[in-house]
Amino acid sequence: MFSYQPFSQECTDALNRVVAYHLHTSHVYLAMAYSFRNDKRIPPFVEYFETLANTRREDADAFLKHLWKRNTAICPPTLEKVDMMEITTPIEAILLAQEMERTLTSILVGLQGAARRESDLLRLLTSVLRKQRKNEDYMKTQLTFHQRVEKEREMQVQTKKPSTLLNRKPYLRGRKHIGDHEVSGLRGFVTSDC
């Protein structure tokens, strides 16, 4: 059974940080998901980010209920806004997501240390930390996938050889090529192909 006495100040502060970071990441994940929705091919992580945004709000709600039940101050700190204009590629989005997941895990572990005598809160934390590990694994998998796709795309660009017929300047069409030089219809007039 758990008590209805207020949490310690250390535990209250840690809980408020967890709530604030859950809500912060929820907003960032939702913004990133919608910023990639208008691409021709929607990256596979978009739906995951939307689901994660909802899950983060639900987890924040669960932590808030713990604060409320214990008649403890609910005062989540304000976090710095992420500049979404800097997130333009799937790899940048996943790298940001990985950074947020590592930070959240660190904050949750801090709460776990502060709540060592709070069995009801520890049960919730155990469940959230388990989901956290899955989220971190997913982000690693997505990063590996998108890095491989990007590398393949770069290799395709490097291996494509431009066609000399297609890249010829329009005013040079119809002229005969001899070696590295081009001979126009005029006798003895030689121009460089550069």
Output the keywords:
mainly alpha, 194 residues, Ferritin, iron, single chain, 2 domains, elongated, Ferritin-like, three-stranded antiparallel sheet, disordered C terminus, metal-binding
Oligomeric state of the chains?
Answer: single chain
For the termini, the CA-CA separation is 84 Å
The share of residues in extended strands comes to under 5%
The CATH superfamily of the largest domain is known as Ferritin, core subunit, four-helix bundle
Helix content: 55-70%
| Rg for CA atoms | 28 Å
Please tell me the CATH architecture of the largest domain by its name.
Up-down Bundle
Average pLDDT:
80
User: How many structural domains?
Assistant: 2
CATH class of the largest domain: Mainly Alpha
Instruction: Count every helix, treating DSSP H or I runs of 4 or more residues as helices.
Output: 4
How is the biggest beta sheet arranged?
Answer: 3 strands, antiparallel
Overall strand count = 3
Q: Which overall shape is indicated by the principal axes computed on the Cα atoms?
A: elongated
- Spatial arrangement of strands, main beta sheet: 1-2-3
The name of the CATH topology of the largest domain is Ferritin
Structural class: mainly alpha
Q: Which residue ranges are poorly predicted, with pLDDT under 50 across at least 5 consecutive positions?
A: 163-194
Order of helices and strands: HHHHEEE
Catalytic activity: 4 Fe(2+) + O2 + 4 H(+) = 4 Fe(3+) + 2 H2O
GO molecular function, one term: ferroxidase activity
Pfam family, one: Ferritin
Protein name: Ferritin
